[in-house]
Structures are given as C-alpha cells and as structure tokens.
C-alpha cells in the first residue's frame, strides 16, 4: 500500500470526517456529512467511480428478483429510494418499462404476477406506472421475440447514469466545503489521541496528511485492505467478491422498452436501451478471487449472455457485433450463501472505536440504489462522536443540475429554444448529463464554432474544459468513459486524437 517514496506535500489540518473511497457510498457520505456542516475530506486512489460504481447495470431499482430470497426490507428501502432519487436527479435518472416474457420452465405465471403486485405496492410507488400483463402475440413489445413467448408482464424501474451520480454527489459535497482528492491513496492511518492521523500519497508521489475525528472506510472491494493494510486492524466481517459483466451491442429491437429475461439457471438478464442506438446486456454473477483492479469479462460470460439472447430473440446480436464490454467486482457482504446470485445486496456497518477513541466506520456491501439511505445511516452510526450533528437533509434536495422546475422534456425544449443554433442532439446530450448546469457549461456559446475543437460525435473542446475544471477529469477515460460516454461514439482514431490533445 506504500507505493513510491513520498515527496514533500500538504498538511490538511483537522477535519471531522475523512472518507476513504470515491465510489457511490463514499461520495454519498461526503455529501451528507458536508451538508450537515462537518469538515470533510475524501480521498480516492484512482479516478472517482473507476471501480464498481461505473460498472453497474445502471439501474435504480428495487431488485425484483430479491423477493425470491425474502429480502423484503431491502426491496422496500430500495423502492422508496427509487422515488427519492428520481425526484432529485431527473436529468440522469429516468423511468424505464421492462418487459418480462413468461418462461413457465423457470417460474409459474401466478408467482411472477404476485411478485409484481408486491413490487408495485411495497415501496409506496407514486411516480411510476403499475405493472400489467401483456399478450405478446399482439403487443408490439412481443414482435422481436420468438413466437413461443406469447404471454408476458411489464413493470417499471429507473435508469441511472451511475458514474455521473457519483460525480454529482461529489460536486455537492465540494460546494458544501468538502475537500475532494482524486488519485490520492490512503497509505497509513493510526490513532493519535482523540483523532486519526491519515497519511495519503498522490499519484505523483506527493505526501498529504490530515487529522480527522472520524475515519470512514468506503473502499468497496478494497474495504479489508483499508482495515488491515492501512489502519492495521482486524475485522469480524468480510466481503464476497462477485464479478458481473456486461456487453454493449447495437440496439436490435424497436421501441423504448427494456427486457428482463429469465434464464434456465434461474438468473435474470437485463436487455436495456443504451445511448440511444445501443443496448446494454447483463449481468453475470461469478465468484471472483483475483485483484479487483484486474477484473475483465471472460469468453464464457460473453457466450452465456449471447445464449440467453438467442433463446428469446428472433434476430439476436452476433459476437462480431459487440462494440464494448466491461466487468465490475461487487463487494457483497458475505452472508455465507452458497449461490452468488443469492448473496445479500444489503449493507452492514462495522464501527471500531471504544468510548473516547476516534471511530473507524467500515461499510460492507450495498447497492447503488440505496446509497443515499446508507449515507444517512452511516451518519447515525457516527452521531455519538458528533453530539451536535444536525438532522438528515438529502431526501428532499436535488442533486446539482436536478432542479429542472418541471419535466425533463420541458427543460430540454427550453434549452433548445435558448440555443437555437446548436444541434438538437447536442442539446439533448447537455441536458441529460448536466441538467440546469448545462447553461453554465455553454456560457456565451451560441453555435458549434463557439464550442471549440470538435473531437467527434457530440464532444467539443468546451465540454472537455468544463469537465477538467469542474469535475476533476484528467485522463482520457475520465472524460470519455466515466464523466460521459463519448468514447462509445468516437472512432479509434478520434479517441487517439483526444488522448494526444490531453
């Protein structure tokens, strides 16, 4: 964990909370704590959301299949959070309808319908339409499916741009005074009286230190590395690493709907519209033993996903049509379940710190949908060390850019009226990624020429400058793969030219 020898660096003085980990849980906790008036520092060893939080299925959902494992509390919490998050960030989160072709070999129709009715009502659904049955032999949603799938169901969940959700939380944290340090590794932490002394090291070797009244370990797959390797402690809890992989192909059906496919092994596969003309397909569930940094999709996983598509669709994509693939490691709380798909998606906190000693709060497990509620509960666990802690606040506050003042379509149309000489696809891109901050990005620009050098697709120099100045982007993948998805729409030559530009 030590890396190269440090060079002279920065002493950040005393903070209330130092957060290790710049994924969704760390970002959410930093935002929550900073908004309560606490002094916060967050460090992340790589780019923000570079690990699990940019490699999810990109859904805000209750987890329909978790009902089979009797995870009613988790599903209810997730469904409640689905409503909260949809209201807080309608530019990066939006409703999506999922078609579930009935496969009687896996689950009887009455069981699926009962599960959907429970899903409709468990979380106090307000904004999304209810589930319904479909005659796939007549409904347009059945057109791309094999003729044998004549009965189906449809229900609602939400899409999310996962890595942007992380960034928006960090922007809000910074606006509330938090110090945000990307590419800064936690090297060593030790208790020094009533505070932690946390030593950090930047990618350039610069040493940084901070004294903190509390330490939060939100390192995801690396949570035990921080406990043992950084803090020198032991833990009774553990995480179970499960690999989930996705492929991206050209969209091969008409309509805005997504599909949820039941497989013979009782797993489910999502087939979702992605980036307008693409489809995102996943995920697998495979136990993983290697370094989280080295995770990659295997040929067996690709074959598995394509085989499920062939079972349901008349004209499924071919292996040669895969334009992108990615794999992530989910740090699930180890509940000793035999089946990786049955491992709980719930989260567990562990607090190391007797009375009078500064606490280390470590987070095991969790899912992107419940990150905000996780952050609230993390603050509750730290409340004994902060007796003057103010009340929770994030449930009714929009994330940056989310204060649209109406529907997303109305906002997007208004932005188009204000910038009539910009292409509508470009306006839609800015509206989706930045919401009301799009006007801050565009500034006085009125035509494409005003946006500077054109890198390809909808990517211009003005946006690159904004991402660098306002969103901590430094390397090519920060810009093209996480802050945006421009990388999916650039040719290899265009991508190389942007790397040269940086």
TrEMBL record:
<keyword id="KW-0274">FAD</keyword>
<keyword id="KW-0285">Flavoprotein</keyword>
<dbReference type="GO" id="GO:0009331">
    <property type="term" value="C:glycerol-3-phosphate dehydrogenase (FAD) complex"/>
</dbReference>
<dbReference type="GO" id="GO:0046168">
    <property type="term" value="P:glycerol-3-phosphate catabolic process"/>
</dbReference>
<dbReference type="Pfam" id="PF01266">
    <property type="entry name" value="DAO"/>
</dbReference>
<dbReference type="InterPro" id="IPR031656">
    <property type="entry name" value="DAO_C"/>
</dbReference>
<comment type="similarity">
    <text>Belongs to the FAD-dependent glycerol-3-phosphate dehydrogenase family.</text>
</comment>
<feature type="domain" description="FAD dependent oxidoreductase">
    <location>
        <begin position="16"/>
        <end position="371"/>
    </location>
</feature>
<feature type="domain" description="Alpha-glycerophosphate oxidase C-terminal">
    <location>
        <begin position="394"/>
        <end position="489"/>
    </location>
</feature>
<dbReference type="InterPro" id="IPR038299">
    <property type="entry name" value="DAO_C_sf"/>
</dbReference>
<dbReference type="GO" id="GO:0004368">
    <property type="term" value="F:glycerol-3-phosphate dehydrogenase (quinone) activity"/>
</dbReference>
<dbReference type="InterPro" id="IPR036188">
    <property type="entry name" value="FAD/NAD-bd_sf"/>
</dbReference>
<dbReference type="Pfam" id="PF16901">
    <property type="entry name" value="DAO_C"/>
</dbReference>
<dbReference type="InterPro" id="IPR006076">
    <property type="entry name" value="FAD-dep_OxRdtase"/>
</dbReference>
<dbReference type="InterPro" id="IPR000447">
    <property type="entry name" value="G3P_DH_FAD-dep"/>
</dbReference>
<keyword id="KW-0560">Oxidoreductase</keyword>
<protein>
    <recommendedName>
        <fullName>Glycerol-3-phosphate dehydrogenase</fullName>
        <ecNumber>1.1.5.3</ecNumber>
    </recommendedName>
</protein>
